[in-house]
Amino acid sequence: MIQRQNLSSIALIALAVLGIVACVALAAPFLAPITWAVALTIGAKPVHRWILQRMPGLPSVAAGLTVVVLVLGLLAPAVLIGRQVAREASHGYQVVQGMVDSGEFEASMKRHAKVAEFVDWLRENVSFEDEAKRAAQMVGGWFQGSVVALSQLVIAQFFVFFMLRDQAKGVQAFRSLMPLSLKEADEVLSRVTTMIRATLYGTLLVGAIQGFLGGAMFWFLGIPAALLWGCIMAVMSLVPSLGSFLVWAPVAAGLALQGNWGKSIILTAWGLLVVSTIDNVLYPILVGKEIQIHPTTVFIASLGGLIWLGAPGIILGPACFAFSSAILQVIRMRTVGSRCVEEAVV
């Protein structure tokens, strides 16, 4: 017969489970901003530590100044690049319109028979009106995604402030909730933090390398504004739904339409074989080296997180793996103790 005390314990556990499920459901819409907030908080720790050392006893002011530095560091490059992109787009439109009005475009088509045949084939077999509508819908989707990402970034800064200001309380709460000793909890937290920091820095570094490689090829081929387009490719490489190919692919197509087949082939080969694939090689190596985990495991965790959770999965996938690995290490140390595994099995 079940005693009253046991029934009370079961009911208490059931209520706790229901409460946790409800809290998870409430927090689910904020998964992305919370994820970015955690990543930004870990990445901004050196800056926050430097500010806090010069403002002892003012944690709120130090956290606020760190958030200001983060916002300026994120928005300033975006605004500058956006202005340059708008200028280049306007200039490019004027150049193309001038070529069409002056008849230079038609003359170029006549000089390059193959290109003219290809353009005629496009006119006969492709509905440019439908394609324009699809392109408009795609741009609208990107714009909507950009607005959502911006709103998430704003919300993330709100979380960053409190994570920086109350980080000591947060660590203490984590320790108290985990069924681990202080040493074990510190080890788990250290592994997860290291994984998130390595993932963040690895993503930024790989994006910068992709932008440099793309911009270098633009410069080598004599394409105008190579530095600008390199910066744009670096930024787009950070966005999972976009990518650097949205820059180099249209340029390669434009070179082909102008009859510059050699440059078009070189840029396409470089973009496909180097720029767009180097992240699959460098990212696992950079992140895996930092946390001493095999690159294949990092690749699976990152790609699996991206497929399962979208953009936040890039951070959460490796973080979940690091947490699970740390817990398994704790179990191993508790069961094996100071003996090696072979001795434990025997």
Low-confidence stretches: 338-346
Put simply, the count of helices is 16
Query: Which structural class should the secondary elements be placed in?
Result: mainly alpha
> What can be said about the biggest beta sheet?
none
Question: Rounded to an integer, what's the Rg over CA atoms?
Answer: 26 Å
Number of discrete domains: 2
* SSE order: HHHHHHHHHHHHHHHH
Question: Would you tell me the overall average pLDDT?
Answer: 76
Beta-strand content estimate: under 5%
What report would you give on this structure?
It is a single chain. The protein has 16 helices and no strands. Residues 338-346 have low confidence and may be disordered. It has two domains: 30-129 and 147-165, no CATH class; 177-346, no CATH class. It is mostly helical. It starts with a helix and ends with a helix.
